[in-house]
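EI: anyone free to look at a 309-residue chain?
SC: sure, send it
EI:
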Amino acid sequence: MLRKSKLKDPRSDVKGIYLMTVVEGLYVQLLLMCVIQMVDMTTLPPVFNPTPLNVTAYVGETATLPCSISNLGSREVIWKKVKEKHALTVGEFVFVKDPSFSVKHIPYRDEWNLMINNIQLKHAGKFECQVSTKENMHRFITLTVSDKKKRIKNEPSKNYPEVHISGPKFVERGHPIRLTCNATGSIRPPELIDWFQEGRKIKSNSLGGISISKYMRQETNTLYSELVIRHSDQMDSGTYICRSSEDKITSHDLLVLNAQSPVGKRESNIDPDNLPINEDPSKTGNHQSRNRPSHGVFVCVLLISIVLI
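SC: here you go
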């Protein structure tokens, strides 16, 4: 007796094809998003984070010259002493015979600090933390070395009161302005930092798009203040002044450029030592080190592996 064969419902094939098409479409979209994310990670320009620009140490101590850079990518950090031809370090490799020099890399803070052990008077001077880019990005740190014999017994370590402003000298109209002032106190950090523009005191104004934030580093007796103007205009051009509570003052000239005006070769006039600076990494929860891949990168690797299989 012959059994009646069951006919396959053609609608099931249509549903299966439809589901496969939807899944493949979602997969392609995820893969495209991953590729875009990985490209963005490699094209972000490096920026210097706020760190002290003046360091004081006594003979025989260990001095730390800080340098923190975000979005470093595949670039290298180079330490040099100003007026000397050869580099001291490239990455974590030391290229001088002096055993006092070394580099301490702290990935989660994007720091490449130059360490000088058993410091001597000959080590004093101006040092340069440089990024290996065509734009010749660099930052200067001044090291002062004092003779320990002249130090008063039980006297706390002191820094010389200093104030510095970092930030761009030219900004396109409508782009944000970001200036950072770091003030170092003699024994303790200054209590306040005031901002002025063309003699007028600047105050935080959320409605006007102006914000002033500050944070302190007790270990370096430094107070940082960051001024952010979200949308720049022609009236924001002028001289900006930073004044600490210890009456130390410094100024910074800034020009807001009209994008429609014929200004040629503006990039060549930008001082690479005054590049925009990010907020202190220890104060933001969203900060990620360049050596700590995001979850999106792991998803990308997984998807690409599936394709290869």
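EI: The two ends are 48 Å apart (CA to CA).
SC: 👍
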